[in-house]
Amino acid sequence: MDQKRQNLYRFERFVLIYNPASTNAKRSRKRIAELKELFPSKEILVVETSPEGYEANRKIIVKLGKKIDDKTLVCIAAGDGTVSAVLDSLLADKSIPAKAKKAPVLPLWGGNANDLAYMINGRPHRLSLKEIFEKGAIVPIYPLNVVFKIKGNTQRKIAACYVSFGASAYTTQQVELPKNKSKKIYAVPGTRMAAEMLIVTKSMLKARTFTIKADGRKQTVYERIFVNGSRIAKVDRLPVRLNQKAFYEATLWHKNPKTLISLLSALKIFRNRTYGEVTEKDRSFKLESDIWSQIDGEVMKLPKGTEVEISLNRSPFYVLTTKL
Fold it and tell me: How far apart are CA 262 and CA 287, in angstroms?
């Protein structure tokens, strides 16, 4: 039997993590039904995420650790933030058994951006789960290891797709504000992208520059990103592949005061392949001012004095993919 074909039969159980409040929860419910129809005799454990946020969901994953091994497929019917919480637990939590860390992951396009899902399996409407199992392969991915040292405390996080500082993180924070997420226009089919772009444009213009200390000198920065793979926040075609053991780094130093030029300058990070570089080298810098940051779409406010370290994680996670 072909090695890839064996993926349809190799899994003994499925753990499916479902966020009923995510952007594409309706699509997630269809995928859950599809999985149950495809594997009627297999064990399928559906676990809902907690509305209490990132750390609460990490605790859920840790509890599931004893039920997970390399014969388990961890399906994530939620957004990139939940994917990040799952990987944080699988790779970083010391109480998770070693065999659980080898469980392949399959994100099911349940959120808004769905960056990891798109990079490993493309657009959701083009593939059935049966096709993914029949055509897919298990591939290792080396994510970004992100360290924040804040007032003597060290926080370590895993970024499957990206970590950014400055304008894009501030923009995400604005998009996620309750007053913006609950806009009535979102109820009209096909309007979400246009409404979000308006918020993005206004936020990019409003975002301020910030100061860091890197390589022994202070630098003024508008946006700094580190991307693991070809896609960040729905923007695709960056010059690095997800399964490449390297990441893409880019810095935008200035914000142009003119509206359209400012937005196009920010997007230049993603569109111009001569901008930034692909590297395997560790990066570190210190924040000289408070700033918004984000990891896979989950935003946080970092205080002045935070020391940041970015590197490739030594251990991979595994995905079921048809594209890599």
Answer: 23
